[in-house]
Amino acid sequence: MEWNVPPRPTSCDTDWGPDVEVESSRTATFRCASDAVPYDFDGARRLAYEHAIRFGDMQCASSRSGVRCESLRTGHGFTISRSAYELR
What pTM, to 2 d.p., does this model score? Predict the structure, then answer.
């Protein structure tokens, strides 16, 4: 990763970034969450280049230049790569 997570906001009193979350009515944001959040990385699947996956109204597409995820309903989402990110 060649970019830095923005500074932790004062409203976040737990762990900050580099996770990104997208809520249906808001622009994507870095996530403020504690270590108590259960992650199942062992059950995670890798999204191969040039493939897409959909969860409800969220769709993510992978390419060699990065990953783009967005709400098909609102357009909110993010693009992330090794060199940069954009939150929408």
Answer: 0.79
